[in-house]
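>> received
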Amino acid sequence: MTSPEPLSGQAARWAGQRERRQAEFVDSALKVIAEQGPAASLEDFAAEAGVARTRVYRHFTDRADLEHAISGRVAAMIVAELEPLWHPEGSARQMIRAAIGAHVTWLAENRNLYAYLRRHARPEDDATDLDGYGGVRRAVAEHLAGLFGTYLSLVGVTSETSATLAHAVVGMVESVSEHWAQQGAEAAAADLVIAQLSDWTWALMATALAAVGVELDPDLPLPPLV
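>> returned
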């Protein structure tokens, strides 16, 4: 007679199955949101996943848990697309354009997913890791502030404005690109938005640098940060 599997093993197997089903359901939800928009219903998600609505909560604690899982997946997509921001290279102008270009291009292709993320932003997201709108926004601003501070230190300048400048850049890029996306502009217009935001971002940075006595050629390659 075969001995029963230890409870810990059963629990681990159930947890793995639950995570797999959660991931599959989120995949279905993302597909529906991309097609129908951020107001898509739980019934729509369940229909796409091929399960009864009542079975959804076998895998999620409640609706908030489901919304958080979907938002977390969208946030992860944004983080992945922002690779040029996390590991910048080239001149200041190239760094700016690469990061903004990645964001605007992703937004142009995933407007409904971004709208869902914004709609379901939670106050506590700012205190969590990259699992929601607030967490991504905070991480981007903090990373930018660190970049600004590090590059300034290379020329012997210590400035208290790095965080302020970072939030100014994030706020501008976010609000302008979001407004553009909401207008339903054609993706072909993305190049213009990227160019404008890149120019304006450099103007902000140049002004902040000048205030601490630093003049930087935006086309001069900057040393890589290890």
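>> Residues 145 and 162 are 5 Å apart (CA to CA).
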